[in-house]
Amino acid sequence: MSAVLADMPEIAAPATTKAIAPSKGGRPWTFYVLATLFACYVIALYGPMFCIYILSFQDIRGGLVFPMKGRSLHWFVDLFTQVRTGDVKGSFDRSIKLAVIVTVITVVVSFLAGLGFRKRFRGDTFVFYMMIGSLVAPGLVLGLGTGLLFQALGLNASWYTSALGAQLSWTLPFGVLVMFAVMSRFNHAWEEAAYDLGASRWQSIRLVMIPVLAPGLVAVALFGFTLSYDEFARSLQTAGSLNTLPLEIWSMTLNVTSPSLYALGTVTTIVSFIVIGASLGSIVLIQKKRGSRVRA
Amino acid sequence: MQPNPSPIRANLAGWLYVSPLVLVLVPFFVAPILVVLAASFFATDGFGGLTPGFTLASYVEVLHSALTLKLYLATIKFTVLTWIFTLAIGFFVAYFLVFHVRNQLLAIGLFLLCTVPFWTSNIIRMISWIPLLGKEGLINQALLATGAIRQPLEVLLFSDLAVVIAYVHQLTIFMIVPIFNSMARIDKKLIEAAIDAGASRFDIMRLIVAPMSKSGIALGTIFVVSIVMGDFFVVKVMSGGGSASVVSAFYEDVGVLQYPTAAASAVLLTLVLVAIVSLILRTVDIRQEITR
Question: Which phi and psi angles does B123 have, rounded to 5°?
Answer without folding.
Answer: -65, -45
